[in-house]
Design goal:
The protein has 302 residues and is α+β, with helices and mostly antiparallel strands. The chain folds into two domains: 1-219, Collagenase (Catalytic Domain) (3-Layer(aba) Sandwich); 226-301, SH3 Domains (SH3 type barrels), CATH 2.30.30.40. Helix content is 18%, strand content 22%. The chain is built from five helices and 14 strands. The protein has helices at 38-48, 110-124, 141-150, 155-161, 205-214, and strands at residues 28-33, 58-61, 69-72, 78-80, 96-98, 227-231, 235-238, 251-255, 260-270, 273-279, 285-289, 291-292, 295-296, 298-301. Strands 2-1-3-5-4 form a five-stranded mixed sheet, covered by helices on one side. Strands 11-10-9-6-14 form a five-stranded antiparallel sheet. α1 packs across α2 (110-124). It is globular.
């Protein structure tokens, strides 16, 4: 996947956003299709709306080529200029390209979902999660070069798109999100141990929380209004995420089965488990594990 990158980034609650590329709040952004079939247009219009409940941006599709976002389907690969960077591109040029959308794809095709949601995240102003300064990817460097050279990447592209990362002083220090739609796939053959990332085909909890803070939706009175979850078992509420090498004081309380909690942050991977920061009915905030082995402890409302 070929995307355009920028260097100036902003720290919000989580994720990576570009300081000077973030749209003004409540922006109405026009979108044009420069070419492509009615079916390709339908895929983009339909799938991209999955971001809409979590942002206050409005995308208006226009019938001519005057759009601020101009989408092509004829160039190689799939890419998008990030956020307001699209406004710097000559009017006759595309600002986004979906070279991988084919006529046989439908609205729930994993390939269409992966590429449209990812590139639309760039259009909104998000950067690549695998370039997070706190990424936890155990790369095998020699195998990385072999693998990506095979698929046609240059060493410069590999160093930028795989190994590259943003300066921590300029970027978010919030938790790295392996499940983010903005994360490239990582093949198991290029890492040490059994570590990989498959094609992501849906917005993660972290994606939704982050853009809701970046562009608070009109329905959200508080920009940090949480998502919700329900406990399936009695589970420990901890002061910090993780459970290994901690004394009993790390456990704040036990949340009873069937309790509704508010989810403010996560997921964070620690000690082999995914953790979410939650508040329950007593207004006490702490961390809970989502799942242990095959047992689901917490169901997140998406």
């Amino acid at each position: 996947m070929s995307d355009y990158a920028c260097q100036s980034v902003q720290s919000i609650k989580r994720g990576i956003a570009l300081t000077d590329k973030i749209w003004e709040q409540n922006s109405q952004i026009t979108v044009s299709f420069l070419n492509g079939s009615p079916h390709q247009h339908h895929l983009v219009k339909t799938i991209s709306t999955q971001w809409n409940p979590f942002i206050n941006l409005t995308f208006i599709f226009v019938d001519d080529n005057s759009g601020q976002i101009r989408i092509s389907f004829n160039e190689g690969g799939s890419w998008a200029h990030v956020g307001k960077n699209a406004l710097l591109i000559p009017q006759e040029d595309a600002t986004c390209n979906f070279g991988w959308l084919t006529e046989d794809m439908n609205d729930d095709d994993v390939g269409a979902l992966a590429v449209i949601l990812h590139e639309w995240g760039h259009i909104i102003g998000l950067e690549h999660e695998q370039n997070h300064p706190d990424k936890e990817i155990p790369y095998n460097s020699a195998e990385v070069y072999i693998y990506y050279r095979t698929i046609g990447w240059t060493d410069e592209q590999i160093e930028t798109w795989v190994f590259g990362g943003y300066d921590k002083l300029l970027s978010t220090t919030s938790p790295y999100d392996k499940d983010s739609i903005m994360h490239y796939p990582v093949d198991n053959s290029v890492t040490h141990g059994n570590w990989s990332v498959s094609w992501v085909t849906e917005l993660s909890i972290g994606d939704k929380l982050f853009v809701s803070q970046l562009y608070p939706p009109h329905s959200q009175q508080n920009p940090t209004e949480p998502l919700h979850g329900v406990t399936n078992f009695d589970i420990n509420l901890r002061r910090t995420n993780g459970y290994l090498n901690k004394d009993t004081e790390d456990i704040i309380t036990v949340i009873p089965s069937g309790t509704t909690v508010s989810v403010y942050n996560g997921p964070v991977t620690k000690d082999g488990l995914k953790w979410y920061e939650v508040t329950h009915v007593t207004e006490v905030t702490g961390w809970v594990a989502e799942q242990v082995n095959n047992t689901k402890l917490l169901n997140i409302t998406k």
